[in-house]
Amino acid sequence: MSAVHELSIAMAVVDQVDGALRERGAERVPVRSLTLRVGELSGVVPEALDFSFGVAAEGTVLADARLLIETVEGRARCEGCGRDTATGMPPDLWCGACSRAMSLTGGRELEIARVVLDDVRPEDAHHDGDRHGDDVPGVTDANADAAADADVNADAAADADANADALARDKEASHVPHR
User: How does pLDDT run across 144-170, given as a tens digit for each residue?
Assistant: First the structure.
C-alpha cells in the first residue's frame, strides 16, 4: 500500500467529520481529538495515516486535533470446532485444533470511533443551544455529561463518568506518535 491510500482515507475522514459538524451547526467548533479504529488486516499503515491526517486536516476544524488510532486485532472462527483465535500477521486462517479453514471475524475495521470537541460556549459556535454531538454518532462534546454521552456512544453508557473515561482512553489508545 502506498501513502496515497492513507491520504485518501484521511481526506474522507476529515470530510465525514466536517459534514457531521456542519449538520449540527458546529462547523466552527475545533476538534480536540479524533479516534479511529483500524483493523490490523485492513491494509492501512497507521504511521502513514497519521501523517496523511495532518495534511488532510490543514485549514479545517480538525487542524489541531490529535489523531488516536486503536488497532483492532485480526480474529477468526472455525466453523468446524468453534475455535475463536487471533489470526496473527500474516494471518493464519487454518484451525490448529481440527485443520479446517477459518472465517475472519475481525481485523478489517476502519471506522471513526470518537470525536471530542473543544470546550466552547454555544454562542461562540453559532449553535442552536443543543450540546454538540447529541445526535451525531461518534461526535461528543468535551464537557458533555454521562447521559448525553450514552446517547452518542454505546460503549460510554456503562461508565459513571463516560467523558472522563473516553478522554483517559484517548491518552492510552494510540500506538502512533502524534503531533
Answer: 332 233 233 333 223 323 333 333 334
User: Nearest to residue 88, comparing CAs of 20, 41, 135?
Assistant: 41
Choose between 60 and 170: higher pLDDT.
60
Q: Read off the pLDDT of residues 91-104 as tens digits, 9 standing for 90 and up.
A: 989 999 999 999 99
As a whole number of Å, the end-to-end CA separation of the chain is: 23
Counted residue by residue, the chain has a size of 179
